[in-house]
Amino acid sequence: MGKKQWLYGLLVLAGGLAGGALANPLWQGAAAAAAQAPKNIAAQEFTLVDENGKPRASLGNKDGHTAFQIFGRDGHPRAEIDVDPNGAPAIALFDTDHKLRITVAVSSEAIPTVKLYDKNEEPRALIGVDDDGEPGMEFYGTGGKLMRELP
């Protein structure tokens, strides 16, 4: 090997050693921070905010309800997962006009339902399974009047 090749080899070795020496504390710092992180954080509410300080998500407990909400850029809820005081879970989805449009729920009597709402937040369709295991569908007109029921 010539002098030039030895010099390049030495430079590569020195660069690798220097890079490793500089990177090692960075990786150890991240590992140390993770090791020092609390194993449990207790609070009544957590709020995730964007770079402008606007709420984008929250997890909280209020009036016996535990809820996780995701907010749109306008600060209004777009999606919510809620568990009521009786333990009944529900998912609610809202449109860009902040209107409730869909719910998926399981009642405290273990009856699952999917409900669709119009732009005025009136229920228009319901799909569910009763406590005997029988499926059913209901369609509603204006004012919540039952129009059709299957079966």
Account of the 3D structure:
The chain has 151 residues and is α+β, with helices and mostly antiparallel strands. The protein folds into 2 domains: 1-37; 45-150, Alpha-Beta Complex (Outer Surface Protein A, domain 3), CATH 3.90.930. The chain is 23% helix and 42% strand. It contains 1 helix and 10 strands; from the N terminus they run αββββββββββ. The protein has one helix at 3-36, and strands at residues 45-49, 55-62, 65-71, 77-83, 89-94, 100-106, 112-117, 123-129, 135-140, 146-150. A 10-stranded antiparallel beta sheet has the order 1-2-3-4-5-6-7-8-9-10, with no helix packed on it. A hairpin with a 5-residue loop joins strand 5 and strand 6 (100-106). The longest helix is centred in the N-terminal third of the chain and has 34 residues, at 3-36. The N and C termini lie far apart (89 Å). The model has no long low-confidence stretch (mean pLDDT 87).
